[in-house]
UniProtKB/TrEMBL annotation:
InterPro entries: Multihaem_cyt_sf
Top-level taxon in the UniProt lineage: Bacteria
Protein name: Isoquinoline 1-oxidoreductase subunit
Native species: Bosea lupini
């Protein structure tokens, strides 16, 4: 064997070793990526801070812009699924009818014999199944009353409805603000359990948008 063949062979060996490591890394990388996708929640969608709207000089326009931003939360499926057009909840990002079919009943917490709490516990519950990772849960899980139905309505209509004590549960604007900033069912939307996208931003950011909206006259978008 000549010196030249030896060098060639060892070069070849080095190349295939590098190839092997690269292939292994690629495989490993793909695996890491897959397990990341499987376990992590999708990253929350962004929500702009109330301060971002300070440059809009006209208070009416600023108010509308603030509510429009807050609308990213209000019209997110995490909220809308509990504020449907009919007395039946919807599910998931697509807001499809609840499977199995479910009825709110007189109190919103389920028909006699099949309360929501049969499946929806006090907190999100992990399942062993591969399809549905968690059953959503929070105390007093139930559907919003019919007067608070939002699905199929424009943001302007939802805005008018939220402001109207005849339809919002007799609340003042200050009480609407504290409901949105503190209510636990509202809060659930940012902690919806594995396998569900949280509402955009944070509940604190959302509360500040609503605060600023009220402070600028609580104007509604025209659409
Ligand atoms: C038989 C069990 C069962 C009962 C009873 C039940 N649910 Fe559900 N519900 C589920 C499961 C499981 C999911 C999760 C489905 C998924 O993630 O695909 C779910 C999801 C939901 C969601 C979707 C959350 C989201 O944003 O994706 C809402 C809203 C909901 N249920 C409301 C209700 C209401 C209101 C009641 C009572 C009127 C009720 N459910 C009764 C099992 C049940
Ligand atoms: C698990 C179901 C559920 C989820 C999820 C939910 N809500 Fe509600 N919501 C209710 C119920 C029930 C009421 C009625 C409670 C009351 O009046 O005290 C209600 C009432 C309200 C009200 C009172 C006034 C009105 O005009 O509707 C507002 C505002 C509201 N929800 C906003 C939200 C927002 C924003 C989200 C998402 C970030 C949300 N909700 C998510 C069930 C839900």
């Amino acid at each position: 064997m000549t010196a030249r063949t030896v060098r060639l062979r060892s070069n070849l060996a080095r190349t295939s070793l590098i190839g092997l490591v690269a292939a292994a890394a690629a495989l490993f990388g793909i695996e890491l990526l897959q397990s990341d996708n499987a376990s992590a929640q999708p990253s929350p969608k962004a929500l702009q801070d109330a301060a971002m709207f300070a440059s809009i000089a006209d208070a009416n326009q600023r108010s509308v812009a603030l509510f429009t931003e807050a609308g990213k939360v209000l019209q997110h499926p995490r909220c809308m699924n509990c504020h449907p057009a009919t007395r039946r909840p919807t599910q998931a990002e697509t807001m499809h009818p609840h499977v199995p079919p479910m009825f709110a009943g007189d109190l919103g917490t389920g028909a006699p014999g099949l309360p929501c709490a049969t499946c929806h516990r006090q907190e999100n519950t992990a399942t062993l199944g591969a399809g549905i990772k968690t059953v959503p849960g929070a105390p007093h899980w139930g559907l919003a009353p019919a007067s608070m139905a939002w699905q199929g309505r424009t943001l302007g209509q939802i805005c008018a409805q939220i402001k109207d004590p005849a339809r919002n549960g007799g609340r003042s604007l200050a009480q609407i603000k504290s409901h949105l900033a503190e209510d636990h069912l509202v809060g659930w939307a940012w902690h919806p359990g594995d396998g569900r996208e949280p509402a955009p931003g944070t509940q604190v950011q959302f509360g500040k948008l609503i605060d600023a909206w009220i402070a600028t006259g609580a104007n509604c978008p025209s659409g």
